[in-house]
Amino acid sequence: METFGAFIGIVCELFYARTDLLMELSKIAEESVRGSFFLVIGTAASTVIGAVASILVARLLGPSGYGQYSLAFVLPSLFVSFADFGLGAALTRYSASLRSQGRNLRLASMMGSAVFFNVVVSSIAFLLMFEFAGPLAATVLQRQNMKELVAVASIAIVFQGLVNISSSAFVGLDRMDQSALTTVVPDSVRVVFSPVLILVGFGVVGAVAGELSGWILAGLLGLWLLLVHKRTLRKADSTRETESGLGQDLQMMMNYGMALYLADLLATVLDQYQNIVLAFFTSNTEIGNFSVAANFGALVGIVSVPVMTALFPAFSKLDPQTRKKELQEMFQRSVKYTSLLILPTAIFIAALSRDLVQVVYGTNYSQAPTYLTLYAGIFLFATLGSYVISSFLSGIGRTREAAKIVIVQLAVFLPIAPVMAWLWRVPGVIAGLLLSVLISTCFGLWLAIHKYGMRVNLKDSLAALVTALASAVPILPLAWYSALPSLTNVLVCATIYLVAYLTLAPVLKAVKRTDIQTLELVFGQVRILRSAARMILAYEERVLVALERGRSEAA
């Protein structure tokens, strides 16, 4: 999900575009800014609520119980990915493209076919997992005593599949508010039900059941909203095109989405494979500590997930054959602005890992700060376009290339993870993950530049990285040696870091005057953020003016 930076890239093109392109690009930018705003708000709300739920569950269950809870959803996540067949990605693309062509009846048919197929396949996957919960828990998770947990968690397969399908369609329909809603509902239900069920004596099973309740409600809500859209599209059809059949719809969607399906499936396998490796080589307590570290990584997702989601349909609206210049500009700006947003968040979390873990989860998770500092390194690869490349390739229809990136990462991580876990346990797995992400990102960047003619200004990316790192220098003494209470230390360090980052960004040329003009244009369309954005941008402008005055006086 691409944050404002993704769409800022489109807006920036307005400064360079020809007159005949102005109106179309402006419309794309306006839709993208509105969409990214809802995605950011939805992701932020979901992350905050989910974090509260995780905190409560982790504190109530303790490291060992929380480790079991984390393992319970490893296999359902794999089965959900198996049941998708690329229909989610295809719905995002065709919801945007068919609607722009006025082919609403075809789109309505496609949505109905996708839901029907997903429910059938997900139900079969659920029945298989429920039936073989015992053998799967014993062989894959190395936890024979988790049979009941795995069986209960398998119910999530059907409803999580519905959430994914409906959310994908909403993004393509430019209804990011509804996509955000389906994102928020599961965590909102979990934050209430899971702690209550734990407290009344159900323990880990109660925590799992609470999460299931959220997926069930969100899945039913997504299905209802999708059916409403389907009826509306049928009434608004402006063509005489006949409604297509199930087979034709599935063939069209799978032709596009199968490569992305493979990529997403491999990404899920990669994500859950690390948990399976940890299950073989580490204890429940270590897994619980690692899960806590990964939960903090979700804070960065407030920025990164909306960025990746919203860029997909935005790139889809520009033809790579006739709009290459616009794509190049959008790609370059997207990498820059996502770096400016993601890097400071990740570095601050890494620097304050000890205090953040203690404030949120308490002192029982003593290994989590070390894991978190290492894990935050994954987000530094935003400087190379790690949050833009896949959305770009998928958006322009090069899904096979997007799949190749995941295949490269999997090819590196699969053999190295068990060895690293055997040698260094959890830190070893994180190190293997870092190496695999670096190699796959470099491969994706090579594809984007040499095969599709995209551009990345590494000077801008390096400036963003240096700014984020330099801003952390003033807070390191407090992070390492402060005797202040953890919460006080976090608040003080956050204030210092924010001021330092906003001051150094213009000084180190991570933010330039053209960037301020662009950001003013973008945030000016988002009413709820307008005032705060203007204050920040006004400060950036003052720093730039002071720098220019100093240079002129020195000359």
Overview of this protein structure:
The chain is 83% helix and 0% strand. The longest helix has 60 residues, at 176-235. The chain has helices spanning 4-13, 19-72, 74-82, 87-100, 104-131, 133-139, 147-153, 156-172, 176-235, 246-281, 284-316, 324-351, 353-361, 368-375, 389-395, 399-451, 458-472, 476-481, 486-507, 513-523, 527-554. By secondary structure, it is mainly α. Residues 1-35 have low confidence and may be disordered.
How are the secondary structure elements laid out?
Blueprint: H1 4-13, H2 19-72, H3 74-82, H4 87-100, H5 104-131, H6 133-139, H7 147-153, H8 156-172, H9 176-235, H10 246-281, H11 284-316, H12 324-351, H13 353-361, H14 368-375, H15 389-395, H16 399-451, H17 458-472, H18 476-481, H19 486-507, H20 513-523, H21 527-554
Short description:
The longest helix is centred in the middle third of the chain and has 60 residues, at 176-235. The protein has helices at residues 4-13, 19-72, 74-82, 87-100, 104-131, 133-139, 147-153, 156-172, 176-235, 246-281, 284-316, 324-351, 353-361, 368-375, 389-395, 399-451, 458-472, 476-481, 486-507, 513-523, 527-554.
